Request: fold
Amino acid sequence: MSGLSQQAFSEKYSIPKRSIENWETGKRVPPIYLLLLLERVVKKNFQTLETQQKVENPKWQKDK
Reply:
């Protein structure tokens, strides 16, 4: 989801690993405050990827 393993995500955001497992398997739903945090994390990751893509393959450069 954020490029982190469950363990790393758990440690970074102080969330029990079991909670993350339950969300991923559909046993539970994360609280809204956490969904908002995840949205920011994912959006940031996508913006970073998009920026890297533009730098690595600018539109003016023809594909070979």
User: Anything to note?
Assistant: Helices lie at 6-13, 17-25, 32-56. Residues 6-56 form one domain.
